[in-house]
């Protein structure tokens, strides 16, 4: 998985640095949440797929935020 904006392949290199990658994970989580809610919130297999999709998107977004804050607090930024 590579990003056209930051041109990095490794997830360790992108976490907390690339704003575009973080926003994409936010929208993936939002889209999954909307699919889960629209499909009946736990009443069908489609709702379960939407919930898992949302959890993965929100999880990646949370990782971006945590690493961003950790890098800012510890001063470990790449120049």
Please give a handful of descriptors for the protein shown.
79 residues, mainly alpha, 68% helix
Topology readout:
Blueprint (H helix, E strand, L loop, with lengths): L10 H4 L4 H20 L6 H30 L5
Helix pairs in contact: 2-3
Describe the protein's architecture and organization.
This protein has 79 residues and is mainly α. It has 3 helices and no strands. It has helices at 11-14, 19-38, 45-74. α2 runs antiparallel to α3 (45-74). The radius of gyration is 15 Å and the shape is elongated. The two termini are 23 Å apart. The model has no long low-confidence stretch (mean pLDDT 77).
Please outline what is shown here.
By secondary structure, the protein is mainly alpha-helical. It has helices spanning 11-14, 19-38, 45-74. The model has no long low-confidence stretch (mean pLDDT 77).
The N- to C-terminal Cα distance equals: 23 Å
Helix amount, in percent? 55-70%
Low-pLDDT parts are none
Query: How many DSSP helices?
Result: 3
Query: What does the largest sheet look like?
Result: none
Indicate the multimeric state: single chain
User: What is the beta-strand fraction?
Assistant: under 5%
What structural class do helix, strand and pairing data support? mainly alpha
CA-based gyration radius: 15 Å
Q: Mean of the pLDDT scores?
A: 77
Report the order of strands and helices.
Answer: HHH
- Count of individual beta strands: 0
Shape: elongated
């Amino acid at each position: 998985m590579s990003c056209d904006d930051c041109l990095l392949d490794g997830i360790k290199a992108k976490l907390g640095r690339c704003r575009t990658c973080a926003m994409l994970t936010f929208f993936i989580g939002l889209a999954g949440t909307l699919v889960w809610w629209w499909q009946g919130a736990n009443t069908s297999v489609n709702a379960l797929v939407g919930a898992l999709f949302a959890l993965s998107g929100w999880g990646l977004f949370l990782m971006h935020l945590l690493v961003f804050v950790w890098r800012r607090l510890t001063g470990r930024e790449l120049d």
